[in-house]
Amino acid sequence: MLLCLMLGLLAILIAFPETPIGQALHRVLVEPLARRLSRVRPGHLVFAAVLITFVAALILLFEWEGVRLVGMAAPEVVTWLGMFDAAAVLDLAAVAIAMAATTRFRAVRDRILAIAGQVLATVRRAPGGGRQRSRRTRPTAARPPRSDDPDPAPSLAGWAGYAFG
């Protein structure tokens, strides 16, 4: 009975598209589906292909047990796909990869700039690159000559003359 109802609606849409009933059916049945299909991106198709491949491998590997597993998992998978768009997962993965690559690129760029700065500083300090300056030496105060007297006279400071004589 449902099949006959669908075939009748399809016949009205094809044979009488200009009638008010045909236009109303077109607005209700065709336009929403066309809008949803226009939002399908390549990421959706890739995810669907991966999911179909996984299900086919599961069925081929486990035979009837695989069919039962797929049947038990179907409601959860459909709910998950309905609640969380698979394209959003792929977009988030692409953003994460782009952020990681950008961070690595910045780190490499900073390292290259640091090495280039060191090389430029070394080149600027290279010998022969400019006028050489002579090093300034500090004059050291000459030590007073030691007396050869083994028993110096006591100084005014008391016993200090004997300690450092």
Can you walk me through this structure?
- The chain has 6 helices and no strands.
- The chain is mostly helical and 165 residues long.
- Among the domains are: 9-39, no CATH class; 41-84; 85-123.
- Helix 1 crosses helix 2 and helix 3 (42-62) packs antiparallel against helix 4 (64-83).
- The longest helix has 39 residues, at 86-124.
- The protein is elongated and about 135 Å long.
Structural class: mainly alpha
Q: What portion of residues belong to β-strands?
A: under 5%
**Gross geometry:** elongated
> Spans of 5+ residues with little confidence (pLDDT < 50)?
none
Described by its quaternary structure, the protein is: single chain
Helix fraction, binned, reads over 70%
The total beta strand count reads 0
Order of helices and strands, N to C? Answer: HHHHHH
Largest sheet: none
**Radius of gyration using CA atoms only:** 45 Å
Average predicted local confidence, pLDDT: 77
Number of helices: 6
Give the N-terminus to C-terminus distance in angstroms: 129 Å
